[in-house]
């Protein structure tokens, strides 16, 4: 497996991975019609996203052979500061981390997270946080095994008209990507 920086040419595969991961992990948590209606092709928004904030955001893909099997986006915590204030001292955010379900529990997510943690640490974007949909046991298992702990913060996310509860997890400051 190889981890590299994503390019706009990866957008279709990224959307396909996100769609497959949502359908597998969010079944029973998100309305079945919403999951069935997820796009499987890249939107202009995904392609644009890859070029939006090159200094404040890192998008990685994991490849196995010629195929992208996972991706992750690391950035500043937008709930803590605006883009103008983003930089060292602002918390980091695991904005997205999706692995195709056919490759779950094989080290792909951990490899992406390790590289993202290194980058966030180099940028001074600490502590590192992630928001997850409550009840998503796949996500909770992954992040707690990596070292994240629930910090008690909660919010709701609007997904296709539904307000869904989310919980925040934080990676302890003394965590090392090599742990």
TrEMBL record:
InterPro entries: Acyl_CoA_acyltransferase, GNAT_dom, YpeA/RimI_acetyltransf. Coiled coil: none annotated. Pfam families: Acetyltransf_1. Keywords: Acyltransferase, Transferase. Gene3D superfamilies: 3.40.630.30. GO terms for molecular function: acyltransferase activity, transferring groups other than amino-acyl groups. CDD domains: NAT_SF (cd04301). SUPFAM superfamilies: Acyl-CoA N-acyltransferases (Nat). Residues 1-174 form the N-acetyltransferase domain. Signal peptide: none annotated. This is GNAT family N-acetyltransferase.
